[in-house]
Write a structure and sequence with these properties.
single chain, globular, 12 strands, disordered N terminus, 5-stranded antiparallel β-sheet, alpha+beta
Length: 269
């Protein structure tokens, strides 16, 4: 197989983040770096101020990731940044006397290879060939119970403990990241999101939005659906679609988080 390079212009990226209708502050953060093949969403925990700081610390650490010479090199840089963020949050926890942490879901792409990494209950989906698959596995108490046959998936969705997470960056001495990887195919679309989306929107509805239009249009439609259904939590959505030789490209954008309003990403022909 010829391992042809992937240019940033091969990726159409959409993004949006919103406080929702109940929370007073947005504790989500995201980072978009198509030029090096990195996209990520972090959802903070520990209260308004601490949660926002935690997610900002995680995505801020990912700014240190540089251009990689290989897929393992890119993965190693991301893992090093996550270790640094974990240490920083542990120090902040001791200093403030309050738990601080953040979930993380990240997509890495280098040449023909992709890797999905996560800690917590933020999710990443792959849409391929008209089908959607949840790549990540929720790090939650109820998901563990489903895996052990103690709860059905439907019971887990209705459980009052469905948001109790078992892994997060900054909570344990060493962060725990799960990894799934594979080879990218033309037309693949990845959906990264905080649990504010999946609390209200089913996988099939995510699929329909991705199939219906461009990456940013899908983000806008999914946010609108979430708001229509109450938006009990912050919601952040990043959609990355690979189209070899696409005329659209993602404009450079700094990490941005909004309070009380949506933050759209931008694409330009």
């Amino acid at each position: 197989m010829i391992d042809t390079p992937r240019e940033a212009s091969d990726f159409e990226t959409g993004c949006i983040s919103h406080t929702g209708k109940v929370r007073k502050a947005n504790e989500d953060n995201f980072i978009l770096r198509p030029e090096i093949g990195l996209w990520a969403v972090a959802d903070g925990m520990g209260g308004h101020e601490n949660g926002a700081l935690a997610s900002a610390t995680v995505v801020g650490a990912l700014e240190a990731v540089g251009t990689a010479s290989s897929a393992p090199d890119l993965l190693a840089m991301l893992e090093g940044s996550v270790l640094k963020a974990n240490q920083t949050l542990r120090e902040q926890t001791h200093r403030r006397g309050a738990t601080m942490g953040a979930t993380l879901v990240a997509l890495l792409i280098h040449h023909s290879h992709f890797a999905c990494l996560w800690s917590g209950d933020s999710r990443i989906y792959l849409v391929r060939g008209g089908h959607i698959a949840q790549v990540s596995r929720d790090h939650t108490e109820v998901q563990d119970m489903v895996d052990r046959g103690l709860l059905t998936p439907d019971e887990a969705r209705r459980s009052p403990r469905r948001h109790v997470i078992t892994h997060a960056i900054g909570v344990h001495e060493r962060p725990e990241l799960d990894l799934e990887n594979g080879e990218i195919a033309d037309g693949d679309a990845f959906v990264l999101c905080s649990d504010g989306l999946t609390e209200h929107v089913a996988d099939g509805e995510i699929l329909q939005a991705v199939k219906a239009g461009g990456a940013q249009a899908a983000c806008d439609a999914l946010l609108a659906l979430t708001l229509e259904r109450g938006a009990h939590d912050n919601v952040t959505i990043v959609i990355v679609r690979y189209r070899q030789g696409t005329p659209e490209k993602t404009l450079w954008m700094p990490n941005r988080r909004v309070q009380g309003a949506s933050t759209p990403g931008s694409t330009t022909p």
